[in-house]
Amino acid sequence: VSGVLVRDIPPIIKKHYTHPPIVQSIPDYAARNYTLMRIAMQHKDVTLWATANPSTILELLRTVNEHHDEIINDIAHGTLSDHFDIPDDIRQQLLPYTSTPYPERANELKQLLREKGKLSPKDYWPYLQYMSTWKCGNTKIYMEKYLDEFNWDITYYQELGYIATECRFGFALDDTNESVLFPHFHYYEFVEESELDCPNKHFLQLDELKVGKRYNAYVTTYSGLYRYNMNDLIEVGGHFRNTPTVHMVRKVNGIVSMTGEKLDESQSIKAVHEAEEETH
What we know:
By secondary structure, this protein is α+β, with helices and mostly antiparallel strands. The chain has nine helices and eleven strands. A hairpin with a 7-residue loop joins strand 7 (214-220) and strand 8 (228-240).
């Protein structure tokens, strides 16, 4: 889906990407992550980094930490490491992005590595102005692991908004992590949290949502989904003018009830996270 998105966006936007969409077609995840960062890090002037799940950011940073010498060598010599499983046809299509040596940039990265002991985005991308991922629900457990890697004095961190493969529900307009629901793209219906297990659910319209209440979202789209159950528990945080704003709480079906305790996924993750902080 990421590759299709980059492939189909207007050329005026596409030309600003560090990499071509064909990178997303690399089957091996380790090879794909390496290629993404190898190409991106030859540029010092990266200003925007956006992806849905913070776990992706964490994985890409881990890739840099584990392969920084290889990345620097590739950038210096205009190569793409043979240690990764990248199909030959894709390697050929990537040559315009990988075959130019950048020895000065490689030396700059070497110097950073010597001085800092590691490579962090705040150092190798000093002009990064904007980063956007999910920041709600259980994604926070990943996000908190890399906050020190960025310079938040110059980088603005924006909630990506309530978006899924099925459709884009809304967009975050400020730093509250609330998404303004689009009232004109798709047709939305909602079931209140207290009725999730009821056989005869009451489907509510967009204008019937109440601030502070939690709902399961259903969507009907132009592409053919009809009353599709997203299994997303969302909470209404306020309004933008008269349109409700929401944030993701968790997946509805992430529930364990061994003795009637109704333990949900977010509670379990929070407990493990607290134990991790206490015990290191």
